[in-house]
Design a protein that fits this description.
The chain has 577 residues and is of the alpha/beta class. It has 2 domains: 8-352, 4-Layer Sandwich (Purple Acid Phosphatase, chain A, domain 2), CATH 3.60.21; 371-575, 5'-nucleotidase,  domain 2 (Alpha-Beta Complex), CATH 3.90.780.10. The chain is built from 13 helices and 27 strands. A 7-stranded mixed beta sheet has the order 1-7-8-10-11-13-12, with helices on one face. Strands 2, 3, 4, 5, 14, 15 and 16 form a 7-stranded mixed beta sheet that branches. A 5-stranded mixed beta sheet has the order 21-18-25-20-26. Helix 4 links the parallel strand 4 (126-128) and strand 5. The termini are far apart.
Length: 577
């Protein structure tokens, strides 16, 4: 791609000093108040986005409108990047993780090889890893980086095997347990017009709570602040003064807000940014799927850009880093950032991206359009909304789990609302089907992770413990302290958010088919292996015994729908949540 004006120097895994916690004091605060002669400055355009999640197609049921505009889609994200690069000889494109995983049908059905192909064609230079990069485990993430055919599904195009990512994923705080080295490079240095810019990439420390624990059992996730500060010191020892952190963690603005505002940005990013070494000049963030442009003080009191570009390729952040050619350092008070909508009506679809999508559509078409069930009304509640409340879709998936585990004597089923990635809409037409018909693609969008159903023994008291774990403080769970569980038909309880942590399930309110749950009695509980292994910090499931596996979650949902035509939205089963 002609826009690439840089030379990449990847700092190897050995750059992380073992697997121990770092104790690094802030570097000497940089003097950003010196305003050099403008002719002595270099202006570098930094284009960034985050949480792409393989949302490739320009469909509102994939990307959703923003600010009243139809936005997103790989063809238009690429076109927007091209438009913004015009006239900027010194430009880099970076991302803050979750480029893959939690993806829509066209990418997810093929283990996100399509998403990486689109990103390669866009000219992405470097990205941090996010938690969803680990959805299929560390081995699969390394395949996504380095290439090779899928170990189970093989090569989708035998004459053109998957060649890997042209861009480098960075994982500064993901450390292998066997040798103390980082799983992927910690940093990358780009030389732009004679000036080095160092990037430190990492995911949130809480990543093991958000993915299947078995898939990341070989690595540890280190503290974000300690890791970034240590890596910044190493970069400065190499003579790199312009330093940007790509961090898959973020915050939320208070309402009202816009895509270019910073209205009371919340934890955890506010606290993280306040502790990052003053040697770090800017922070590109993600994870919370929010847009914001902030100037937040570093430990020395100097403002520093902290940005985020919403999600699904709907927004691109354009940052102008002004760098003093003499000091090689960022002049912060002259550096600016703006979020731009990827508005489809104002762009022409990128033909190269269209060709990529058409190639994968031809492979997926016969599968995508199969009608697997029907609904009589909208059944809503996907992960793009509030993950801390009961949703009809979450409860419906729990019903499907209960139905699919009857052979293992299940009585109650739980489903994490954050794992429900789509809704069933009566009037949504994805593959030429009739209103009310649900296609395989739509079912996939609800359950894209390939989890397996499991059933296990839990006492009533253990079930109550699990329900209490829906709320955990920010220090434990990061930017989403409340993660609700959908519950199956027949199980009910009351929730009182005014009570302290650990006491929010109203005592005596749990019931099964109207009969109070006995805290000492054992019940057969069904869920996903993700939760049974302690995912989303629901560690209470680990107390279960007599664990028996079941079908894959998507296959089970499809069979449930085939045998339950005309589905309707379940009534609420939880009072107060």
């Amino acid at each position: 791609m002609t826009h690439r004006m840089s030379r990449v120097v990847a700092v190897g895994a050995a750059a992380l000093l073992g697997g121990t916690a770092f104790a690094v004091g802030p570097a000497q605060a940089k003097n950003d108040n010196d305003k050099p002669n403008p002719s002595a400055n270099l202006s570098v355009q930094l284009l960034s986005f985050n949480d792409y999640h393989g949302h490739l197609e320009a469909k509102n049921n994939e990307t959703g409108p923003l600010d009243g505009k139809d936005v997103g889609g790989a063809e238009f994200l690429s076109a927007k990047l091209t438009e913004l690069r015009a006239g900027h000889p010194n430009t880099l494109t970076v991302a803050a993780g979750d480029l893959i995983g939690g993806s829509t049908f066209l990418s997810g059905m093929f283990h996100d090889e399509p998403a990486v192909e689109t990103l390669n064609a866009m000219g992405l230079d470097v990205s941090s890893v996010g938690n969803h990069e680990f959805d299929e485990g560390t081995t699969e993430l390394l395949r996504m980086q380095n290439g090779g055919c899928h170990p189970t599904d093989g090569c989708y195009f035998p004459d053109a095997p998957y060649s890997g990512a042209d861009f480098q994923w960075l994982a500064a705080n993901v450390v292998r347990k066997d040798n103390g080295r980082t799983l992927l490079p910690a940093t990358s240095v780009k030389k732009v017009n004679g000036v080095d810019i160092g990037f430190i990439g990492m995911t949130l420390e809480a990543t093991p709570t958000l993915v299947s624990p078995a898939g990341v059992s070989s690595v540890e996730f280190k503290d974000e602040v300690e890791t970034a500060n240590a890596q910044a010191e190493l970069l400065r020892e190499r003579g790199v003064e312009a330093i940007v952190v790509l961090l898959h963690e973020g915050g939320y603005q208070a309402t009202p807000f816009g895509i270019n505002t910073c209205n009371g940005i919340s934890a955890p990013i506010a606290q993280i940014a306040a502790q990052l070494d003053p040697a770090i000049d800017a922070v590109v963030t993600g994870h919370t799927h929010q847009p914001y442009i902030c100037q937040l003080p570093d430990p020395s009191g100097a403002n520093r850009l902290v940005t985020s570009a919403a999600d699904y390729g709907r927004v691109v952040t354009e940052t102008e880093l002004v760098i003093n050619r003499r000091t090689k350092d960022v002049v912060r008070d002259q550096s600016t950032a703006t979020n731009h909508l990827v508005e489809r009506a104002a762009l022409t679809a990128d033909a190269q991206q269209t060709a990529i999508l058409d190639k994968w559509r031809a492979l997926s078409g016969p599968i995508a359009g199969e009608v697997v069930g029907t609904v009589a009304e909208d059944i809503l509640g996907d992960s793009s909304g509030n993950r801390g409340i009961e949703t009809p879709m979450g409860d419906l998936v729990a019903d499907a789990i209960l139905w699919g585990t009857q052979e293992t004597d299940s009585q109650i089923a739980f489903m994490n609302v954050g794992g429900v990635r789509g809704s069933f809409r009566y009037d949504a037409i994805t593959n030429g089907e009739q209103p009310g018909e649900i296609t395989y693609e739509e079912a996939y969008l609800v359950a894209p992770f390939g989890n397996v159903l499991v059933t296990l023994d839990l006492t009533g008291a253990q079930i109550q413990t699990i329900l209490e774990q829906q709320y955990q403080p920010v220090a434990a769970r990061g930017s989403r302290p409340m993660l609700a569980l959908g519950v199956s038909e027949g199980f009910t309880y009351e929730w009182d958010a005014s009570q302290p942590q650990g006491s929010r399930v109203v005592r005596g309110s749990m019931a099964l088919d109207g009969v109070p749950i006995d805290l000492n009695q054992t019940y057969r509980v069904a869920t996903l292996n993700f939760l049974a292994d302690g995912g989303d910090l629901f560690t209470g499931f680990s107390a279960g015994t007599n664990r028996i596996g079941g079908p894959e979650d998507l296959a089970n949902l499809v069979e449930f729908m085939k045998t339950h035509p005309g589905l309707t939205a379940p009534d609420s089963r939880i009072a107060g949540l």
